[in-house]
Amino acid sequence: MSSLPVSTGKQLGLVIDLDTCVGCQACATSCKEWNAQGEGGPLTDTDPQGADVSGPWFNRIHGYEVKREGRSDSHIVNFPRSCLHCAEPACVTVCPTGASYKRAEDGIVLVNPDTCIGCKLCSWACPYGAREYDYMQGVMKKCTLCVDRIYNTNLEPEDQVPACVKACPTGARHFGDLGDEKSAVSQLVKERGGFDLFPEMGYKPTNKYLPLRARRESHAAGVQPLAKPDGSVMEKLFAWADQLLRSSTTTALVNPQDNSGKLEG
Amino acid sequence: MTPVTAEPRLNLSPKTWDEVKATTCYMCACRCGIKVHLKDGKVVYIDGNRDHPVNKGIICGKGAAGIKQHYSPARLSKPLLRVGERGTGEFKEIEWDEALGLATGWLSEVRNRDPKKLAFFTGRDQSQGLTGWWASQFGTPNYAAHGGFCSVNMAAAGLYTYGGSFWEFGEPDWKHTKYFLLFGVAEDHASNPLKAGLGKLKERGAKIVSINPVKTGYSAIADEWIGIAPGTDGLFVGALIHCLLGAQKIDGEYLSRYTNAPWLVIENKGRADDGLILRNASGTALVWDASAGGTKVSGTFGTNPSLLGRFILSDGRKLVTSFTLIAERFASNDYAPETVSKTCGVASETIHRIAAELAHTAFTDTVELDIPWTDYLGRRHEKTLGRPVAMHAMRGISAHSNGFHTCRTIHVLQIMLGTIDVPGGTRYKPPFPKSIPPNVKPAGKMGHVKPNTPLPGPPLGFVTGPEDLLVDEQGKPLRIDKAYSWDAPLAAHGMMHMVINNAAEGDPYTIDVLLMYMANMSWNSAMNVPDTLKALTAKREDGEYVIPKIIYSDAYASEMVHYADLILPDTTYLERWDCISMLDRPISEADGPADAIRQPVVEPDREVRPFQTVLIELGHRLGLPGLTRPDGTARYPGGYANYIVNHERAPGLGPLAGFRGKDGTAAGRGAVNHNQLKAYVENGGYWFQELADNMKYYRHVNWDYLDWATFFGFLPRPEPIIHQIYSETLQKFRLAAQGHGAVLPPPEHRVRVATYFDPIPFWYPPFEGEMVSGSEFPLHAITQRPMAMYHSWGSQNTWLRQIIGRNWLYVHKARAAKLNIEDGDWVDVASHHNTIKVQVKLVEGQNEDTVWTWNAIGKRKGTWGLSTDSPESQKGFLVNHLISDLLPEREGGYRFSNSDPITGQAAWYDLKVRVTKSANQKEQSAPQFKSLKKIGST
After folding, report:
1. Mutation site, A136, A233, A250, interface B, largest B CB count within 10 A
2. Sign of the alpha-carbon torsion through A231, A233, A234, A236
3. Residues B321-338: pLDDT tens digits?
4. Mean pLDDT in residue range B512-518
5. Of B147, B242, B393, B724, whose CB neighbour count within 10 A is largest?
């Protein structure tokens, strides 16, 4: 059994907007390529050109067609899934060697590959399926929240965010300190009603998901229905055009001769 | 519990790269700026370039997987010469010198005898500025890229209507739009800017309406999804116009000032001037001045033209304003929401409501920017008025045989609302707007093609009447693909999808050499794959192939490699110089022009060469004048990099607009700068010039912009670009079909041309659906591009194929229940042409009468470096096999191509099918083609 820090200074994590995610996979491959070459790498794929290609991914995007309460039609939700860096991570407490740990400084949950024995208890303990076993190296791997980017002074300050956040084309992924009520991500969670996955299980995930916004499929306030066209469409149009001719105004002239001269025959 | 685990010491600032180079992505057509991180000369990481105008730091699923494309086992490594029969995979490796010698021999023989016997067609070519010019120098009119089977309906409809286009030539004003209509767009051109823009709209609370038979991707996040029946968008949009006309919610001032709505059309049925615009002696259009009770020159200050009305000229001719004709068409009951509802599969109340929302947003919820600007008549506008309705449309509109008119209908809607290039509307990206149409005509007319002689102009351009067609005295096509013939008069991008089968049929003639680049024409880029393979392998009586020589350049072991005779292996996008030029498809932003380069970030580790450099070398070996100095030496020694810097299309105008002039400070027009590429590299691989605020909107009629654009070479003269909602060009073709003029269509074409060359947009049912039985083939079948893949390139990519390694046929649950089909069943899908067997998934988020799949994932066994048991070949499939390249016979026995009758755009999405549970539930798709022998670096 491994234990947890009593408290963490920060609670770094992600806020993922399910209302904006189009399921493009940019976060998935950006994650894969950063971590394949970074501190967590390599993330080797087996049978790369064959029938059963597979490999570790720290971030996978699933598409679900769901029914929402009170609606007859379906909704397609794109759901990116990665480690939620829980405040009470069972994957850490279950680890027999102390390889899984939660950083005291920022709450990031990591695996120490030097002490991981590949027993996979942590992946059984994680209800979110966030851990990925690397069969080539025989160790468990997972999202590091790009711990090797977010403090990396070799990167431009604005690039010191997880690779998935930098990549996201629709801006559906946000990174910050969810332990700080005033942080932009905490504010976003508050405004949009961000929620935990499986809160009833008590792991207190740090990452939050933003729910679907209300869809506007009916008249917005102030939109007046148009008069339904009847048999006199052309007649009314002519009246409108006449009115237009009478009401036309002329705006100030700058230099009409110059240009209109070119146009005249 | 044990004490807190000691945390291992981590290196939080690892530097896993030793160098970063900025270049341009090529994982799709979007052309984002990327930063390639290198370690010990190897590519280790690629991310988006924050400074780049296209993507501003973001990257997509494909772009971030570029590393696996570069190190793909499917890469070719040396020139190959076919030694067995085509399709057997029997090749031998040869040296480059031998390869270039062979190609030169084949090509020079053709050029000496009859240059049109070379057909040069390129696929996902991003160097069309070079390849088109090369073809012209060679002297063959038979050149095009893949636009004819991709997006020409969008490009042509836009360029013939408002001087711009959706496609890549314009974009929504993401910053100010409040209402966004998205028609038929899946992952497509400009994929990252679209995603970024949708994200911005979401943040601002702008309403997004997606009109698409399928509710994935962008449609999934839209506020409103309209699951329209494929090919009926024109009817839906026509109904919106109907409602707006009925409520007089139209921007009359915009129409009067900036469009040809008030221009006078001659009504003289049966005569040669019927439907033409009334013009003065110098050709300027006339309008009706009600206050004077007579005609006046259009576009003059102080004239207040009538928008509606019929008038009689002093010589007795009857006149009508063009807007009257447009209004009469759409006011008709044919376009009433109640009439179109059933065909479109959209409730009439929904159409009424969306029309009201459009009207509200455009006319009540306006935007006013504090930017004074001056229009072409010198009228100063103290503010820039915006009508914040934006639209974007792509392949769902384009890939139908009614796509040109449908796209024009959308433009008419935009223009009636006064939304083109206004704040919140759909904006041009420089070099657009261009003259309507752009002032370049296709070369290749009778007498243009001569041995050892360049064409007098470019092979592709824009016709403005029958006299510009490339036809002989009998009206027969002069081009191998029949572009610019009576089959497809406005085929502005050529018709690559017709080349192979036409050449094999000898219709209109046979060819001697087919040169292709990056075009998988024996597989996912071909309609009717089985017959295309027959065409590629057909032999004459003397044992020679009907298409005797095929030269192909590609970086990968695609299906097409197997059917070529000489393979010129290309580099990857990370190994070469390139330019993303405004002479080709620009990457400009609405706020200003931009272009970019690719630089070799790594050296090739094998014997491959950039195709562009090879083409320049071949041009010199052939002695093409543009590529050879009078003394016989190469004009661009070293290849493409030299050409990019030193080539001038007109004095001071070259492939790259930035860092021109001897000291590199000129933009747009300027002398050659020998350090230009260095300047691009230092600037992050791109050049961008933001326009002054007063030149950012209303550019078609913006005095300052028009002047500036003329200096930059975008326009021949600083003249306003008046939107042509009534197309006189189309009417000229129609008149020819009615027997007027010097160039007349052959009799078998007359009804067709007279019908479809309507100067006013209209809706007609897609051809295939009209020609096959609706009860026999009740379902529409379409494809979409998955977001993580681009054409056939993606599924060799180890990472991307883990995301999607095979495809399914998606069927609506309700429809499946009626057909007794369950999730996971294997089904037979039959068209009038062929049958395939595929596996289904049942969903609800799609039009009930439509089935669909992801395109280009199915692979032929033995290709792309994949194992022969890969899911791509075992379970993946193409619907291409179901699509005929020709329509069923029409009256007189002629089989027209399965294309739009105006532009020749391939009608991929017209497909109609029948789906039944297969008697054979074996877990394998059908047809399975014979496995090809593996070619590649491993």
Report:
1. A233
2. positive
3. 999 999 999 999 999 999
4. 97
5. B393
With H, G, I as helix, E, B as strand and everything else as coil, classify residue B98.
Answer: helix
Contacts of B874 (CB under 8 A, 6+ apart): A51, B806, B923, B924, B925
Domain edge (last residue) among B761, B784, B803: B761
Asked if residue B350 and residue B279 are part of one domain, the reply reads yes
Given a cut of 80, whether residue A219 has pLDDT beyond it is: no
In a domain, A243, yes or no: no
Q: How far apart are CA B691 and CA B710, in angstroms?
A: 14
Q: Are B553 and B517 in contact (CB under 8 A)?
A: yes
Neighbours of B23 (CB within 10 A): 27
- Rounded to an integer, what distance in angstroms lies between the CA atom of residue B182 and that of residue B190? 13
Interface test mutation site (partner B, options A22, A66, A192, A219, max chain B beta carbons within 10 A): A22
d(CA B450, CA B342): 55
Helix, coil or strand: residue A115: coil
- Whether residue B246 and residue A226 make contact (CB cut-off 8 A), yes or no, is yes
B750 and B775 together in one domain: no
Confidence (pLDDT) at B5: 60
Tell me the pLDDT band of B650, cut-offs 50, 70 and 90.
very high
pLDDT digits (tens, 9 = 90+) for B547-584: 999 999 999 999 999 999 999 999 999 999 999 999 98
Q: Is the Cα torsion angle A43, A46, A49, A53 positive or negative in sign?
A: negative
The whole-angstrom separation of Cα B833 and Cα B888 is 9
Q: Report yes or no: B55 and B40 within 8 Å, Cβ to Cβ.
A: no
Same domain, B196 and B259: yes
Of B1, B8, B43, B6, nearest in space to B23 by CA: B43
Whether residues A251 and B379 touch (CB distance < 8 A) is answered with yes
Residue B99 lies in a domain: no
Q: Does residue B257 share a domain with residue B295?
A: yes
B177 and B326 in a single domain? The answer is yes
pTM of the model: 0.97
User: How far is residue B228's CA from residue B241's CA, in Å, rounded to a whole number?
Assistant: 17
Averaged pLDDT, B385-390 = 98
Residues B868 and B750 in one domain: no
> Which of B403, B431, B459 is at the close of a domain?
B431
**Inter-chain CB proximity B48 and A237 less than 8 Å:** no
CATH of the domain at A69: 3.30.70.20
* Same domain, residue pair B745 and B793: no
Interface ipTM: 0.96
- Pairwise CB contact (< 8 Å): A1 & B2: yes
Would you say residue A220 lies in a domain? no
Q: Could you give the CA distance from residue A44 to residue A134 in angstroms, rounded to a whole number?
A: 8
**Dist CA A158 CA A160 (whole Å):** 5
Residue A134 covered by a domain: yes
Percent of chain B whose predicted confidence (pLDDT) is above 70: 99
Instruction: Give the number of C-alpha atoms closer than 13 A to the C-alpha of residue A36, restricted to the C-beta side.
Output: 22
- Picking from B61, B223, B283, the nearest residue to A215 by CB comes out as B223
Asked if B650 has any chain A CB less than 8 Å from its own CB, the reply is no
Q: Domain residues for A205? A: 12-210
Q: Is A166 left (phi over 0), alpha (psi -120 to 50) or beta?
A: alpha
Residue B305, preceding peptide bond in cis (omega within 30° of 0): no
* Distance between B3 CA and the closest CA of chain A, angstroms: 6
Number of domains in chain A: 1
Domain holding B741, by residue range, is 729-761
CATH number of the structural domain spanning residue B826: 2.40.40.20
Q: Using an 8 Å CB-CB cutoff, list chain B residues near A91.
A: none
What is the number of domains present in chain B? 3
d(CA A49, CA B801): 9
Strand partners, B914: B830
Question: Hey, what are B487's tokens?
Answer: 């089959």
Q: Are B466 and B733 in contact (CB under 8 A)?
A: yes
